[in-house]
Amino acid sequence: MAEIVFERVTKRYDDGQLAVNALDLKIADGEFLVLVGPSGCGKSTALRMIAGLEEISDGSLVIDGAIANELSPRDRNIAMVFQSYALYPHLSVAENIGFGLKVRGSDKSEIRAKVEATAKLLELSELLDRKPGRLSGGQRQRVAMGRALVRSPKAFLMDEPLSNLDARLRGQMRAEIAHLQKMTGVTTVYVTHDQVEAMTMGDRVAVMNKGVLQQLAAPRVLYDSPANLFVAGFIGSPPMNLLPGKIVATEAGYALELGELTIALDDAALDARPGIPRFAGQPIIAGIRPEALRLLGSVTPGPSRFSGTVAFVEDLGASLLVHLDLAGASVVAAGVSEDGEELSSARTRLRAVVDGALPVGKGDPICLTVDPARIHLFDAKTEQAIGA
Ligand SMILES: Nc1ncnc2c1ncn2[C@@H]1O[C@H](COP(=O)(O)OP(=O)(O)O)[C@@H](O)[C@H]1O
Ligand SMILES: [Mg+2]
Fold first, then answer.
1. For residues 124 and 143, what is the distance between their CA atoms, to the nearest angstrom?
2. pLDDT band at 309, cuts 50/70/90?
3. How many angstroms separate the alpha carbon of residue 19 from the centre of ligand 1?
4. Residue 176 and which of 101, 202, 277, 331 are 20 to 30 A apart at CA?
5. How far apart are CA 118 and CA 184, in angstroms?
């Protein structure tokens, strides 16, 4: 098992494409680290540099304390784990797991011992004689991991292993892979463009955009304290509402002006983001998660209230996702979608998640409110979070 450290690692492809830009990232021994970001942000390139499949243009890759830039893939002993369907269909589970050892010429008794130990760890002992065609999706994934694990790799690398599965199986496999990683304790770097996968699986999550690491933190920290506008818009589903506005000093303290709307920033809000006074008079972007909005019984517009007309409602069962045509303020879409598509066009719809039992329907006038301490604030110029 290994610690993997990127020290200002840069990858520039021969055609000049800057895929990874001065990446600093330390992956602890035994950690499950998820690398997430929109398509084209450099995730696969970073992973392939760990495996030794991509030359490093600048900086150092350090594996277990030794610079590994020039090590051949074989000498790194790092396993790329492929999708479950990459199993050999005509071989049994035992033969699939032992395949790599056999190719390397290990002797039969050694292969058997290692296959049995691996199967035991992955709870596959009962299935060793089966062919992959007669296994469930979860069992196949375990065999795929077993095939890598049997060689005692220093680390597992996984590049979007679930992307071709249907939603239901993907959900199961998320939990399965995270569980197996905990059981085996092998350092794992898992690449995905899916922020839900990232949030549910990783001990820590590294968010990348355009080759640059945006934030490295536990999922909860990314959600509660996104470091910049990109992370704020990318993490969370449905995504955070982003509203342009400014901070103003008032007699009572500070307030947030969002178009015609004014929200007083109370002591709790100032405690949560002590940097607010420094931004008085400055343009900011306010970020409000759909689940932070609360439906008010009254529909009378007033200070600190978002009022408007319900454009449509998505009924999710336990909750309703309400799309509100907002009066007096505008909402801008977050920077980039998971597919890497730029979202620059302004929208005016505010999204709110409310209790599924509430009587909200298309065309209804409604009012929503938010606890000011739950409003995220970003410098409109630098796009960095306004925190301390
Ligand atoms: N072999 C290559 N030659 C040139 N450019 C490449 C190559 N592979 C990837 N790229 C470019 O590098 C950037 C990062 O790609 P990649 O690491 O595959 O991103 P991701 O896995 O996040 O989708 C993209 O702009 C991509 O087009
Ligand atoms: Mg990729």
1. 8
2. very high
3. 6
4. 101
5. 10
